[in-house]
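To: structure subgroup
Subject: Chain for Friday's discussion

All,

I'm putting the inputs and outputs inline so they're searchable in the archive.
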Amino acid sequence: MPSKHRTIVTAGILLGMLLGALEATVVSTAMPTVVASLGGLEIYSWVFSAYLLTSTVTVPLWGKLSDLYGRRRFYVLCVALFFLGSIACGVSQSMGQLVGFRAIQGLGAGGLFSLGMTIIAELYTPVERARIQGYFSSVWGIASIAGPFIGGFLTDTLSWRWVFYVNAPFAFAAAIVIWTQLIEDPSLRKKHRLDLAGLSLFSLAMTLLMVLLIRSETSFEFRSPTSLALIAGTIVALSLFVLTERRSAEPLLPMELFRNRTFTGATVNAFLSGIVMFGLLSFIPLFVQGVQGTGATEAGGVLTPLLLGWVVTSAIGGRLLLRFTFRQVMFAGMTLMLAGYLMLDAMDADTTRFVILRNVLFLGAGMGLVMITSMIAVQHSVARNQLGIATSTSQFFRSVGSAVGVAVMGTVLTQRLNQEIAGAAGTPSGFAELAQNPNIFLQPAIRQSLTPEVVDTFQRMLAEALHSVFVTGTVICFAGLLFVRLVPPERLVTPVKTRPSEDLL
């Protein structure tokens, strides 16, 4: 592809990725105003859950379809779904409608990131890819910083509906760029047979799993009949899926990918880093606001070093891969994350803001290295005809890890809070409600209604519970450090024999 076209396509994909990344942070800022306008507080969480469910489950599907039939048409289809979902969200007249339209948005978002990274992997050589994909990974950090400000500005000055409308021109521009500038070799196309049985079983299994994780929100309810049914259904559907894939001529998820040590090791570490990353994003602000008694703005501000560290090391990580092996760079990233969590373990109510920011910076720097390395390692280890499904599978496991992380660490928090309350003599009855939903302690009206003694006691209990959460993250980081050994000591510049040059764009 000519360099001019390549540059334009890269800009279009960057725009599409920024579009999806901003959506995740912009909407959360506007939601209190949305509830005030539409009502439906009882299904508030499903505005996020519906988006998470559809965007996660469809990631491997988009990757496989693009491997079979080409990237361009499915990338544009994903942009169109995101565009239509955004407009529909903006005209929603009830919370139920908003939830349904967010699910449509998620269908498109599932392909924006995985297909975007796949196209970039095809446009650039491995060495060029190492330099450029770090900047693409930085999109998440930039969106996390800018999103809340954009969401607040649009909601306050125009309307919460503009949080969704503002996506329209950017989505349209991204679709036009990719459709007109991305050139695919028609000689590579051949007749394919879509694995409908595998697709159906995988969708069923992942939907059941995501519903289980979404239902749990702050705790796993393993003993409830509904949860047991979801767990059983997930296991049965996954088992049938694996059996089907082994017999399929063109499986949705080729099982031989997991015999590739680089792919398996990088994917496992993407999953584990997803757990610790989103667990951290959820519970560090809770520590600052709940234990130290700060406001919401200050609590959110402590994540800034994490995002900055992520942006910087994502850019640096690609260049490090030109000199060191995948295993070495990933080991360095997991070491930084482990060091950050070990420092979090030592925090208490008297920990200074500087120390918290330092700890979070370590974690962000480690995440940047691990995530960019795992993505490039996966793409480098497979043939062109598996590039889409390999990239999307790695992204999928990271997304599932994020859902698992929030649920597992939420369980640890709730159980430890319950233990603290049960072991404290003469605590007020209202403590039980705080233990089940500690976020209500952050609401000014609730907090002001409590006596200073109750506030101090609950802050101490919350600090102990969050300490257990951080210890859990430390254990997972240590496991990730051990699993780095699964990744062979391969260098980026090592040619991949299974990727013939004629398969590239």
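Points worth raising on Friday:
Confidence is low (pLDDT under 50) at residues 494-505.
The radius of gyration is 23 Å.

D.
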